[in-house]
Amino acid sequence: MGNPPELYHKILNIPKDTSPQEIRAAYKNLVKKWHPDKHPPSSKPEAEARFKAISEAYEALLDQQENRAVFGLCNDGRACERGTGGAFCGGGGGGLGAGVGTRMERTRSDDFCTRSAPGTPAREFKKVYSSGNSGGRRAFAEFSSSIMRKAPPLERKLECTLEELCRGCKKEVKFTRDVVTKNGSIVKKEVSQTVTVKPGWKKGKQVVFEGMGDERPGCLPADAIFTVSEKKHPTFKRVGNDLVLKAEVPLVSALTGWSFSFRLLSGKKVSLAFQDEVICPGYEKVIGGEGMPIPEHKGARGDLRVKFEIVFPKELTEEQRAGLAEILKGSC
């Protein structure tokens, strides 16, 4: 058996009932995208492989379309050839039908018919891959399967501080990948790439370098995937797009008034003062627009949430207890 048409349709990303005009349009779009001259060295091997598969699939599908125009169907469901005056249906080497015309020998190969006479519309590609040449069919099958398969991705972590994720930065990453040499052996090669971290990126964000992973014989080069991980910050904790700051307040300050200052991840200094209010346990103050940038909405930011934890004294003297009881009498 030859290569099924479904394989060619899959390579060109078109449905089965596509017309010749639509096949040409899909082919033109894909060869523009995957022309090797338009790709950098890192992705050129993949581009060359895809370009070759696209071209071969295009030739094969057009040949099949042209053969349908040349051959009809006999009453018993077998393919038959049409002459100028009628159809010729053959049994073994081909039989003469009722019409008048030049008799042509019919052969059957790969589930469709070809003519052995000069002037056949089948292209050279078909002669190699769609004839009885099992070696040609096998070569294309192996080649096509490799086009549809990539080596497993090379995965690494991209550690970022909360400041880097807030402000954005550029990080150079170095990694070792397997490379297939011209003689087919695999060697280790150290490469480096630059990752542009955009403000607001979250842990779990993936950066993909196509074709920069490990190489394996008979496969497309794997992708190198870097997944963002967030280093623990000593002051802030990220919750979605918000930043949470925990502030410890002595009991006496929570009751009598308190102020403190701190710096945001951007370096901006913020001061908070509580002079005319009592800070209760679990109290939270929200400062709008001082959280993390939101990449999906330019200029938008989350909020800063300051959570207060009241620090109670571990022990009190009898005199202190009595004094507090007198002061707080009737206040609650």
Automatic annotation (TrEMBL):
GO cellular component: endoplasmic reticulum
Swiss-Prot/TrEMBL keywords: Chaperone
Ranges for domain J: 7-75
Name this polypeptide is given: J domain-containing protein
Species whose genome carries this gene: Urochloa decumbens
Organism placement in taxonomy: Eukaryota, Viridiplantae, Streptophyta, Embryophyta, Tracheophyta
